[in-house]
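dumping these here so i dont lose them again. two proteins, back to back, each one seq then structure tokens. dont judge the mess
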Amino acid sequence: MSEHPSEQALRAPRRLWTGWAGLLAQVERMTRRSDSEDLLHDAYVRMAARPERPDNEEAFLVRAAVNRARDSYRREKVRGPAGGEDALALLRDGAPLQDEALMAQARLRRVSEGIDRLPPRTREVFLLQRIDNLKYREIAERLDISQSAVEKHMARAMSFLGEWTKDW
């Protein structure tokens, strides 16, 4: 005896529901995404909205979920994750404003001029510490001076540069 189509339609979702965990595990394994259940659910809703059932519902659901995951990955790669960001956040430029950049360049020139005005040994100690990131002990060894002398040169350089750039 043949089954009525509406009875088939009622039994198919029940069969899918019992196999949902297996389908979810397959989608998770194939996509490696944390939103696999959402992807599978969306695929199920799309399948249910179709006028005709696919021949192999499980294969349809997995393929549709994987395709949705690929689309999401591509979209996120271009636009970034859609974690509640508004459209304006995507347009914001993190770079400083032009006047801020010009002021920073002017301050940098002022500091550079101040460094050039330091006595040669003080400038050398200052640059070894600030640019080369050497410790006072390493500077003392390299220049064959005491660590106390390095500390005094650094204090002199910092005091001078502080005054030199005071109103900048």
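---- next one ----
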Amino acid sequence: MTLHTQYLTMLLMLGSGFCLGVILDTYRVLKGRFHIRGWAVSLIDLLYWFVCSGLVFSVLFWSNWGELRFYIFLAIILGVFLYYQWLSKLMTRLIETCIRLVEWKIQFLAKTVQMIVIRPILFTIQLIRKLLLFVLRLFWKMLQIFLRPLLWLCSPITKRIEPRVRPYLDRGILLGKKWIEKWRQRKKKDDSE
């Protein structure tokens, strides 16, 4: 391995250490912000180490075909140390600001969708419902007005027919009640099983 490749690898591993610090700070801020607890912390820790390992080894493979040397580990540790000495507080504030900005944009988008889409749809549904109720009430009133004279004209006929039809109607109503009761008992039986 040439000296140029070694210097390049050393700089890239130093940068990888910086990246590991940034990822860890991001994870810590998100964990505190969203109050992640329990098994989710272990799962995210495992994910963090997979991502970091993949990042370091892909950069190492790109820079020197994956040759591991002692100075590579020193460069990664030095990169993490320098990051925490110089940039950790600034980066934490920046990440918190970005999270607040994203939350604000999501809330703004949700309110906008509610104002532009959901409220007009709900208003339209209520308007249609009220209009349909008004039309049905108007139709019922008109039907009552038109049927009153017809019922008055038919009253002599209905008075003569009613005594003959009444026993059949009563039997039909009684039979309907028995069927409904049997259906309810069968439904209760099916529900209990």
